[in-house]
Amino acid sequence: MTAIVWSELATVLDPEIDISLLDLGVIRSIEIDGQSITIVMAPTRTACPGVHEMKRRVIEAVHRAVPDANVEIKWKIGIWNPSCVSDRGRKVLQSAGYIVAEEGVSRPLTCPYCSSVKVRRDGDFGGSVCKTPFSCRACGSTFDLLGADQCVSCRGPRDILQIASPPR
Ligand SMILES: [Zn+2]
Q1: CB 112 within 8 A of CB 97
Q2: Residue 156 neighbours by CB under 8 Å, 6+ apart
Q3: Domain range for residue 34?
Q4: For the whole model, what pTM was predicted?
Q5: pLDDT per residue as tens digits for the range 155-166
Q6: Number of domains composing the chain
Q7: CATH number for the domain harbouring residue 45
Q8: Which residues are near ligand 1, the ion (C-beta closer than 5 Å)?
Q9: Helices in the chain by DSSP H: which ranges?
């Protein structure tokens, strides 16, 4: 039963971006106990406005796999970080014009369209709270950095272009 639940969960897309919640790192684990199925999920941000729609979609997917299951969603707040995004998820996001903040990587932010480092932060918030808007001075594209708020609020007002972890 676990495999069929996972395969349905793999089809659930994020409400805002065409990426599966599995690749985004939002769906974390499942626990099956008879007809009771618990899905552990981690929102990309505590105040993410998409959580209710995510929950609805996940419950619907579980019911496609096991129609009479008792589904419970457990949110684990504060454990999501950009490294939760799968490699496939990063590619999907890049092709949709998003760059994912990377943990422990010290390199300049690059444009997802032309790879130029001549990018500029356009403000604090993008289309939703987990996005930060940027534009590229080389090709003129605009794109969003996903998860950047963690770099700003948890690591102090360091230069957003140098997304590096503090020394450990
Ligand atoms: Zn560019």
Answers
A1: yes
A2: none
A3: 2-75
A4: 0.72
A5: 333 333 333 333
A6: 2
A7: 3.30.300.130
A8: 111, 113-114, 116, 136, 138-139, 141
A9: 2-9, 51-65, 87-95, 148-155
